[in-house]
Amino acid sequence: MAPGEEVDLLVVGGGFLGLSTALHAREAGLSVRLVEAARIGSGASGLNGGQVIPGLKYDPETLLSQFGDELGETLVRFAAGTADAVFDLIDRHAMSVPRGRSGWIQAAHTRTALEAQRERNRQWSARGASVALLGEHEVGEMTGASGYLGGWLDRRAGVVDPLALVMELARVAGENGTLICEDDPVSSLRHTGGLWHATTRSGAAVAAKKVVVATNAYADGLVPGLRESLVPLHSFQVATAPLPPELDAAILPHGQAVSDSRRILVYYRKTPDGRLAMGGRGRQSRPRSASDWRHIERAMTRVFPALKGVKIDYRWYGRVAVTPDHLPHIHEPEPGLVTAAGCQGRGVGLMIALGKRLARYAAEGDRRILPLPIQPIRPIPFHAMRQIGVAGAIAWYRLLDGLER
User: Fold this and answer.
1) Which residues contact 40 (CB under 8 A, 6 or more apart)?
2) CA atoms of 218 and 30, how far apart (whole Å)
3) 400 assigned to some structural domain
4) Residue 134 sits in which domain range?
5) pTM
6) Chain CA centroid to CA 18, Å
7) Residues 9, 86: one domain?
8) Of 82, 230, 362, 374, which has the fewest Cβ atoms less than 10 A away?
9) To 5 degrees, how large is the angle CA 246–CA 310–CA 245?
10) Cα–Cα distance measured from residue 170 to residue 230, given in angstroms and rounded to the nearest whole number
11) Do residue 273 and residue 360 come from a single domain?
12) Are 364 and 31 in contact (CB under 8 A)?
């Protein structure tokens, strides 16, 4: 960064949220500097499951009940369009991103889950969404898996290569005039003289009229209390060797993404080169060896017994952020300093769509642009003990999932 650099907007974090905010802010006419602590694509935005799923964890009627008719309807409409935001952005900028849009299947492993999907289908169908319930035979044919009692198909969803997407977002943002700095985390942020002044670990400095902190699960102490308001989880994933022709034809023959209905769910998709990629929750600490992915490999052969013995070529993981209420949070602890976090497994669509709204808010200053109310940062009590608590909860949920039929 050049000495004395001053911009309209500083974006801290170069994942989906930060890059989308930067790109859309440039399109709104703002000058933008983006600072990434590591390398673009090294965090969960480049290392996630590649599923582009619209909606939130809660169904429309729950959101209307919680937020009221006006704000609830705004949130529902926003959530319904998050997948569109991704695919439209890719097309508009002719991004080189392997992708498909055949939909997402939520596969039910119990009658209780099937009833919940029936209710979800009723609510989204009433809103004209392209969704459908699947019977046991249909879900078996579409997934190639055994053991599911049925499922729910959301045709609005799709899949992307997440690393290609985050790299293309960075390319387009840079070509549109965003100044991008990598491998240099912001170490201090203070407001003085009507501007926000940021200093990086290397000693570089930038002044900005407004700041968006888009660090999500990688939040540190830059915004007081933000890290303590989130539960970071590790998403572990594996990818097989390219499947032999007979398995390639039988597993996900129509290209949908899938998540199951378990408490500790697994999710999977086919890659463009014919591999099966599957992910799920992993240990809270950093992995030490290939054995730390063994629970995913066991899940893979449970869902697809025919994959027993198929070589695993790749193993990776990323960190994701969950909020206690399972909703994304937007905060503005001081005027001109905005942060948002909490993907809840919908990060690709949610963060890219939310970045567009944050960019407009930075440019226009109208809170009605935002799909959620700005709320105070609320640190989680006993947050320092979260790893023990989360590990215990995951073990308990795995036990319950194993007992269910």
Assistant:
1) 14, 19, 46, 166, 167, 170, 180, 182
2) 26
3) no
4) 104-155
5) 0.93
6) 13
7) yes
8) 374
9) 15
10) 26
11) no
12) no
Do the bridges between strand 179-181 and strand 32-35 make them parallel or antiparallel, or are there none, so unpaired? Answer: parallel
Given a contact cutoff of 8 angstroms between Cβ atoms, the answer to whether 229 and 377 are in contact is: yes
Residues 54, 85: Cα–Cα separation, whole Å:
10
Q: Report residue 396: phi and psi, to 5°.
A: -65, -45
Strand partners, 192: 195
**Number of structural domains, the chain?**
3
As a whole number of angstroms, the distance between CA 65 and CA 236 comes to 34
Q: How far apart are CA 42 and CA 240, in angstroms?
A: 21
Q: CATH number of the domain that 224 lies in? A: 3.50.50.60
pLDDT of residue 405: 47
* Tokens linked to 57: 């964890």
In terms of Cα–Cα distance, which of 367, 374, 366 is closest to 340?
Answer: 374
Question: Taking phi first (over 0 means left), then psi (-120 to 50 degrees means alpha), and beta for anything else, what does residue 289 get?
Answer: beta
User: Residue 251: what residue type?
Assistant: I
Contact 40, 182 (CB under 8 A): yes
Q: Is the dihedral of CA 90, 46, 346, 16 positive or negative?
A: negative
Question: Does 316 lie in the same domain as 170?
Answer: no
Degrees, nearest 5: CA angle 17-199-228: 55
User: Mean pLDDT for each 10-residue chunk of the chain (405 residues)?
Assistant: 91 98 98 98 94 96 97 97 98 98 96 95 98 97 95 98 98 98 97 97 97 95 95 92 97 97 88 96 85 94 95 94 94 98 92 98 97 96 58 46 51
